[in-house]
């Protein structure tokens, strides 16, 4: 049986936007997820909220 490799995808800020953000200001990165060690847990983010006040700070 083939072992499944967990992959992590994340959006990264590639360049700071000047004005409204454009798609080229971001890039999608993907890499392997490390296996948790003894006493560690692996969590999956299902929902994420980024409030405007956090961006403005």
UniProtKB/TrEMBL annotation:
InterPro entries: ADH_N_2, GroES-like_sf. Pfam families: ADH_N_2 (PF16884). Residues 9-51 form the Oxidoreductase N-terminal domain. Keywords: Oxidoreductase. It is an enzyme of class 1 (oxidoreductase). Its EC number is 1.3.1.-. GO terms for molecular function: oxidoreductase activity. This is NADP-dependent oxidoreductase. It comes from Salmonella enterica I. The gene is yncB_1.
